[in-house]
Design goal:
19% strand, 10-stranded mixed beta sheet, alpha/beta, 290 residues, 8 helices
C-alpha cells in the first residue's frame, strides 16, 4: 500500500481523478480516498493537522502488510524567484521546522529527474515583504509535521515528499476564492507526470544496494574519527548509499571533503567531544545529500 497525505482537496483532486480513487463512505475524522493500491487522506492546512492526519491514516491501516509500503506527501509551496519558476516540482531531501529549528532528512535511495531541494515549514503564510527574512529555499506549512509523524511508522527511506511551486510569495487579493482553488488544482494537474514518476518507483529491497569494501573502509574511518554511535553509523551508511545511487560516484569522495575541510580537526585525530562529532556528521550529511 502507498499512503498519501495532502493538505487541500484542490491539491488532491487531480491525483484522485488520475488514480481513480473512491472516497470511503465510513465516517472518519479525515476524508480518505482509496483503491486497492493507494490510500489518500486530506489533512487540512498546517503542520499539526498534517501530523494528526498522517497518524490517523496509518493507524487505520495498522494491520496492513508494511513490506513494500511507503508514504508520500505532495502539494504546493512558495519559493523565491531566484531559485524556481512557478510550476516547477522538487523532490525534498531536507525539511526544517522554522518554529523548532529541527530538521528531518528523507533518504532518497533512487534516481529521479526531479531537482532536489530543502524545504522550510512555517506556521503562517509568508508574503513577499516577509520572505527576505527566510532562507533562500522552498516554503510550505505541512511537511515537518508530516515527516515527524511518518517517522513513527516508517524508516526515512520510505518517506517521500514532492512540492510544486505555486507562487513567489504572492498575496492573491484581487482574485476570488474559487479562482484560487482553480489555480491550485491547475498547478498540481500540470505536475501530475512528476508525481506519478515518484509514485512509480518501488522501495528498494533491503540490502539491494551495498557499499564496496573500500567504501566500507571510509565508513569505518568516519565512525572512528567522529566517534559515531551505531545508529549514527547506519544513518551515514544510508547517506553514502543514496549519494552513490543518485550521482553514480563513489562515496569515497566524501573522505577527501572530510579531510580537506578538517571537519574532524587537524590530522583527522578522533574528536574529543560529542558536539564535535555531531558537527562533523552534519557536514558529511550536507555533502552526501547536496
Amino acid at each position: 500500500m502507498i499512503f498519501i497525505v495532502v493538505a487541500l482537496l484542490p491539491e488532491a483532486k487531480p491525483l484522485i481523478t488520475t488514480l481513480d480513487l473512491k472516497i470511503l463512505r465510513d465516517q472518519t475524522s479525515f476524508p480518505i480516498y482509496q483503491n486497492e493500491k493507494y490510500s489518500l487522506v486530506v489533512s487540512g492546512i498546517g503542520k499539526v493537522c498534517s501530523a494528526i492526519a498522517t497518524t490517523f491514516l496509518l493507524t487505520q491501516y495498522k494491520n496492513e502488510d508494511r513490506n513494500g509500503s511507503w508514504i508520500f506527501n505532495f502539494g504546493i509551496c512558495g519559493a523565491p524567484k531566484e531559485i524556481s519558476q512557478i510550476g516547477e516540482s522538487f523532490l525534498i531531501h531536507k525539511i526544517t521546522d522554522r518554529g523548532t529549528g529541527k530538521s528531518g532528512y528523507p533518504d532518497i535511495l533512487f534516481k529521479s529527474s526531479l531537482r532536489e531541494s530543502s524545504l522550510l515549514t512555517v506556521d503562517q503564510p509568508v508574503f513577499e515583504n516577509e520572505s527576505v527574512e527566510l532562507p533562500n529555499t522552498l516554503v510550505d506549512m505541512e511537511a515537518s509535521g508530516f515527516f515527524q509523524a511518518s517517522r513513527k511508522f516508517f524508516t526515512s527511506d520510505k518517506i517521500r515528499i514532492v512540492k510544486t511551486v505555486s507562487d513567489h510569495f504572492t498575496k492573491f487579493e484581487s482574485i476570488t476564492k474559487g479562482e484560487i482553488t482553480d489555480t491550485i488544482s491547475m498547478r498540481i494537474q500540470n505536475a501530475i507526470p512528476e508525481i506519478l514518476q515518484i509514485l512509480s518507483i518501488p522501495i528498494s529491497p533491503e540490502n539491494e544496494f551495498e557499499l564496496r569494501p573500500d567504501e566500507i573502509v571510509s565508513l569505518n574511518h568516519f565512525k572512528k574519527t567522529l566517534r559515531l554511535s551505531e545508529t549514527e553509523t547506519i544513518q551515514l551508511k544510508d547517506w553514502m548509499i543514496g549519494f552513490k545511487i543518485r550521482t553514480g560516484k563513489s562515496p569515497n569522495e566524501g573522505k577527501t571533503f572530510f579531510e580537506t575541510t578538517r571537519v574532524s580537526g587537524p590530522n583527522t585525530n578522533p574528536v574529543k567531544t560529542r558536539e564535535e562529532g555531531k558537527k562533523g556528521l552534519n557536514a558529511l550529511r550536507q555533502f552526501y545529500q547536496s
